[in-house]
Amino acid sequence: MHAKTLLWDFDQTLAYRNGMWSQTVLELLLSYGYSAFTLETVRPYLATGFPWHQPETSHAAFFRGVPWWDAMTRHFIEMLRNMGVAPADAETIAKEIRPRYLDISRWQLYPDVLPCLARSKQEGYTSIIVSNHVPELQELADQLGLSPYLSQVFSSAQVGYEKPNPHIFQTALAAAGEGSPAVMVGDQYAADVQGALACGIPAIWIRRENTQAYPYYCSDLEQFFTVLYRLEADRFSVIPK
C-alpha cells in the first residue's frame, strides 16, 4: 500500500513571490518617497503580527471577529507608523498592500512543480494544498495553473488555524477521506514536518538546507518520487498478494 494523498505546502514549496511581504512593503514605501528603507530594515517589522506567528491561537481568538484583511490592514497601519511613516501615508500604503501582494505577475511556480503534480495525478495520488496563507490562496492557485492537479486548497485564513496547529492537518485529512494515507510535503521544518509528524502524518522536507539531517528530504521535486517511494516502503505496511 502507498500513500493516496499528498498534502502540499504552497509558499517556497510550489510557488514563490520574490521578497514576499517585505518586498511588497518596501516597494510601496519607495513609491511614496521613503527611500531610506531597505529589505533589511523592513523585515524586522514583519516578524510579528501575522496569525502564523501565533499558531497555537485560533483565528477566532487572534482576529476577534474582524475579517482577515481588515485586521491585517489595521496591523500594517500601526506597523508603518512605528516605522516613522506619516499617518496619512501609513493608511494609504497599508490599503495598497493587499492588491500589490496578490498581483499574480509577481508570483512564479518552481519549474519542477507542474511535472511533479502531473506525475502524482497520473500515479493515482490526490493532491491537496495545506498552507498558512491569505484568503485568496485558491485564486492564486487557479491563476498559476495548479488547479487541474489539485483536489482542494486549504488556506489557514479559511480554516482558522495555522500549521503546525493540528486542526488544519485534521481538516485536510477529513477532506481526503477516512483511511486515506497521506504524506505532507513542505519547506518549513517546524510547520510542515514537525506539525505533520505530531498528527501522525509522514512528511517530506524540501528545498531548504537539510540542517536537521532529516531522512525524508529532497532539495527539489526532481528527486521527489525517489524519496516518496522510500518513505512509503518505510512507513506503510505492504499488503501481501
Strand order of the largest sheet: 5-4-1-6-7-8
Helix content: 40-55%
Q: How far apart are the first and last residues' alpha carbons, in Å?
A: 11 Å
Rg, rounded, reads: 19 Å
In round numbers, the mean pLDDT is 95
| Residues in β-strands, percent | 5-15%
Structural class: alpha/beta
Envelope shape: elongated
Q: Which parts are unreliable, with pLDDT below 50 for 5 consecutive residues or more?
A: none
Q: How many helical stretches?
A: 11
Order of helices and strands: EEHHHHHEHEHEHHEHEEH
Count of beta strands: 8
Sheet with most strands = 6 strands, parallel
Write a short abstract of this structure:
It is built from 11 helices and 8 strands. It is α/β, with parallel strands linked by helices and 241 residues long. Helix 10 links the parallel strand 6 and strand 7.
3D structure, described in words:
By secondary structure, the chain is of the alpha/beta class. It contains 11 helices and 8 strands. The strands form 2 sheets. The protein has a 6-stranded parallel β-sheet with strand order 5-4-1-6-7-8, sandwiched between helices. A two-stranded antiparallel sheet has the order 2-3. The termini are close together. The mean pLDDT is 95.
